[in-house]
Amino acid sequence: MAAVQQYPGMCCPCPSSDVDVWISQLKKKQALEYQQLENLCSKVKEVLTEESNVVEVSSPVTVCGDLHGQFYDLMELFTIVGEPPETNYLFMGDYVDRGYYSVQVVSLLLAMKLRYPQRVTLLRGNHECRLTTQVYGFYDECYATYQSCDAWKCFMSVFDCLPLTALIDDVILCMHGGLSPSLESIDQIRVLDRFQELPHEGPMSDLLWSDPDDSGWRVGWRDNARGAGFMWGSDVSHDFTYSNNLAFVSRAHQVQDAGYNWYHDGKVITIFSAPNYCYRVGNLAGYMTVEDGTHTCYTFEAAPRDASDTHSKNLTPYFC
Ligand SMILES: [Mn+2]
């Protein structure tokens, strides 16, 4: 749009009126034009690059898990809880893949991040990378929307900048996947070089891929059947939270029937914010508010889909 191109050399952030137009367009489920998207990506990268691997977040804040392109359900969340800047949000990754509207969902969140950088925190999930998006739908959706892979490349360069973790009020550490045998302290997270494609192994990969072990085998570390990250026992959760002065660890990454669930004697919570995941699982969505030193979890059901939606009768081809 001409309004955007009048400011080619302007420093971040963009004129707020431009970003407001993008946000209102995206909230109508309309993807941005490619030039707008390129502008959004380059500007939001400048914001994200300034953030630490451990983003310091102050309550009140609403904490959310996986979204996976379920646009109507993200709008439902905003209807129920409120929108930035009135409501502060911390999203723990997995914005894209599997659902039908990953382009709109992640574009909207990036635009909100650019517009309200202190009120929106976006962490990286294991789906925010080149390898996974080529398998589970986001690459195909980008190509279908923009008739080239340039938009996907733009998004990937933004994903390489997303922070890995956030620390709420110094006592709740948030990440997409979980803990790592390579990371005993939060300071060790702070010194990782995160500005790259998600590695296949190592601490950065573990933070985005690991799961708490809730089986009978609950001590120490073991391999993860996902083929990346680890599974960790409750002793690890107790040791890590104690030595880092944390109340608990908040993470996403695994669908929960009830939207959220506590593990390891309250030292770990899993929050999953895509209701009826992949339009067929039947789970509730969850989110957590942190305010005045307390945390409260809530759930919501899948939003009705627009009957005119061309996808409404089809199941996602990327469910497995
Ligand atoms: Mn995940």
From TrEMBL:
Gene Ontology molecular function: metal ion binding; protein serine/threonine phosphatase activity
Name of the molecule in the record: Serine/threonine-protein phosphatase
Transmembrane stretches, start-end: none
Gene3D superfamilies registered for this protein in UniProt: 3.60.21.10
Sections of the chain in a coiled coil: none
Domain Serine/threonine specific protein phosphatases: 123-128
SUPFAM superfamilies in UniProt: Metallo-dependent phosphatases
Top-rank lineage group of the source organism: Eukaryota
Names of the cofactor(s): Mn(2+)
Organism: Cherax quadricarinatus
Family of the protein in this entry: Belongs to the PPP phosphatase family.
Hydrolase among keywords: yes
Catalytic function, reaction form: O-phospho-L-threonyl-[protein] + H2O = L-threonyl-[protein] + phosphate
Protein keywords: Hydrolase, Manganese, Metal-binding
EC code(s) of this entry: 3.1.3.16
UniProt keyword Flavoprotein, yes or no: no
